[in-house]
Amino acid sequence: MSFISLLWVLLLGSLLGLELIGKVPPTLHTPLMSGANAISGITMLAALTLIVKAEGNVPLLIIGSVSLGFALFNVVGGFFVTDRMLAMFSRKPSNKK
Amino acid sequence: MNLPIIIKFVIDLLAVLLLALGIKGLSKVKSARDANRLAAFAMSLSVVGLLSYYLGTSGIAIQSWIWIIIGSIIGSLFGAFLAKKVPMTSMPETVALFNGCGGMSSLLVALGVAIFPISGGQENLDFFKSLINEVSISVSIFVGAITFTGSIVAMAKLQGWLSTPGWTQSKVRHFVNIVFAVASLIAFFDLINGNTSSIWLLVIVSSLLGIGVTLPIGGADMPVVISLLNSYSGIAAAAAGFVVDSQLLIVAGAMVGAAGLILTQVMCKGMNRSLVSVLFGGSLSAQSTASSGSGEYTNITSCSVEECALTLEAANKVIIVPGYGLAVAQAQHTLREVTKKLEQNGIEVVYAIHPVAGRMPGHMNVLLAEADVPYEQLKEMDVVNPDFPATDVVLVLGANDVVNPQAKNDSSSPLYGMPVLDVQEARTVFVIKRGMSAGYSGIKNDLFDLPNTSMVFGDAKKVLNDLIGELKDLGVGEK
């Protein structure tokens, strides 16, 4: 991938983000922030790449593994906690006691 | 192009599409939960895509698998455990903690690549290519470190583990932070010049910068900072994407970065604060006590819980204005019991939600939803404001600045221009409050002086419990 095309990817990704978030009601801002936060843990892919390419370099394997752990803590925790919040919204009025 | 590359390309494309749909779906109450799961699925898909690509090309060594499994299991278990256990009221600090760890992950990746350059993949590094590599490593480390330390400080302050040290409110902090910023710039250029050891300087000073910038910020502004740091962690992920040459990482990181910025802006608008004043102004109360907004109260009416119950019983329409204080007292369940009784008596109950009620936008909705309040009863400010003149009783619980009429009437007030709930239009207003202390802005609330406002002093939870007792004595909600 050339650097220029990666810059294009960056630009288009940012525009997409701006456009997607523009219309969210305040009610959902906390869950949205939490959900977006979970997605930012996508850096786990970078950690995986690091581990795969480490080729037996133990310090690098450890750094990669710790990094992967931090990222997955972010991802798994983030999605679970968002789900917990949203579960409360989806409760229908008829279901309440 | 061979098969593994094509497969990875298709999977990445699909993952980006699903992530975008996920973020979009999170913007509607009905689709939000499914959208969150969709995003989670997209993330797993991206992992499958990456692993299958390496399996199809270079292969993955057993040793790598072992470290992958160790890291994943430990991280996921801790994450899932915390997410299940944490109470809803501490949501902001939880998000901050998760966010900080995301930043830490980006930092570690960049650090690893910097210390042990990845072999293979990177065909002959020309000057331009290696420059880009070093810049993206530096950015990833810089932003990652700020995100990590900043988020941890934010979490500690929200949890009450850290208070705001006095010196951070003086001008000294600007000097200190400028020193850190300049030092990280020096480390950055030194790194590009090929001096690899300055990477540690970069790690240390950018970590310190994260602390130095976050520490002076007051508790009430913290959500804005968390949202901003959330945006940073996206940028850190995008920078890590440049380091390891991953388009998917760049797109997803950029999306989160942009989304975080928008959200930050919305929060600032709701609090009538500019991002600049949040970041550089220190805590608001320190400045505004000296400004024109303060003054003595002249016409405070205080009343008992019993009077409050009597007025509520006679009402047709009641609007509840919940605020930060309600969340602190954890009184949302007790509040729900009170409103249930009123509803059983045929009284119309609505909750007026200011955009920044609670500790972050939308936090109050989560707390009330947890207490079983039907979603339809939560009304946003613009919807509910025209209803106040036709309302008999307004119950203000732990909210202060968001119901201050000064924001509309007094152009000299620091609050002037902030959107507020027009509670004073209602026939009677009850303000349940611990004492006469000012809100987080430190500004006198003109509402308390109005003839139709009565203060009920006490802890929100205790007052509401007493209210339940009084309503019971009056026979409300028992038919």
Give the low-confidence spans of chain B.
120-124, 284-293
| Share of helical residues of chain B | 55-70%
Count, helices of chain B: 18
Separation of the first and last Cα atoms of chain B: 75 Å
| Structural Rg of chain B | 26 Å
Query: Poorly predicted ranges of chain A (pLDDT <50, ≥5 residues)?
Result: 92-97
- SSE topology string of chain A: HHHH
Oligomer: heterodimer
What features would you describe in this structure?
The complex is a heterodimer of chains A (97) and B (479). Chain A is mainly α and 97 residues long. Chain A is built from 4 helices and no strands. The longest helix of chain A is centred in the last third of the chain and has 33 residues, at 58-90. At the A-B interface, α1, α2, α3 and α4 of A face α1, α2, α3, α4 and α5 of B.
Summarize the structure.
The complex is a heterodimer of chains A (97) and B (479). Chain A has 97 residues and is mostly helical.
What characteristics describe this protein?
heterodimer, A: flat, B: 479 residues, alpha/beta, cell membrane (chain A), cell inner membrane (chain A), proton-translocating NAD(P)(+) transhydrogenase (chain A)
List the helices and strands and how they pair.
The complex is a heterodimer of chains A (97) and B (479).
Chain A: H1 3-21, H2 29-39, H3 44-53, H4 58-90
Chain B: H1 3-25, H2 32-56, H3 62-85, H4 91-115, H5 127-159, H6 172-192, H7 198-214, H8 222-244, H9 247-270, H10 275-280, H11 284-288, H12 305-314, E1 317-322, H13 324-329, H14 332-344, E2 348-353, H15 363-370, E3 378-380, H16 381-384, E4 393-397, H17 406-409, E5 428-433, E6 453-457, H18 460-473
Parallel strand pairs in B: 1-2, 1-4, 2-3, 4-5, 5-6
Helix pairs in contact in B: 1-2, 1-9, 4-5, 4-8, 5-6, 5-7, 5-8, 6-7, 8-9, 12-18, 14-18
